[in-house]
Design a protein that fits this description.
96 residues; mainly alpha; DUF1844
């Protein structure tokens, strides 16, 4: 793995950052905090509902602040991600 990385440029290892990759990274963080996916650093699934709520709230704030400034596909993705996270949060709260 390290040998593969040594031969690649930084641009090849990391995706270009745009608004979509940014909200997808926040979505991934929220899923980790909800305990739905493993934490890539520890390999464990642990719920932290406070951090999950904070991340979802940050996404909600971004949705509000960017309203009318996004492309249609970005807006649609954002809406669906946020709706899905909110539903998962509520479901997770019920099992706590």
């Amino acid at each position: 793995m390290a040998e593969e990385r040594a031969g690649k440029k930084r641009e090849d290892l990391f995706p270009n950052i745009d608004f979509t990759t940014f909200i997808l990274s926040l979505n991934a963080s929220a899923l980790v905090h909800l305990g739905i996916v493993e934490d890539p650093g520890t390999g464990q699934r642990r719920r932290n509902m406070d951090l999950a709520k904070q991340t979802i709230d940050v996404l909600g704030m971004l949705e509000e602040k960017t309203r009318g400034n996004l492309r249609e596909d970005e807006e649609r993705l954002f809406h669906h991600l946020l709706q899905d996270l909110r539903l998962r949060y509520v479901a997770s709260e019920k099992t706590t």
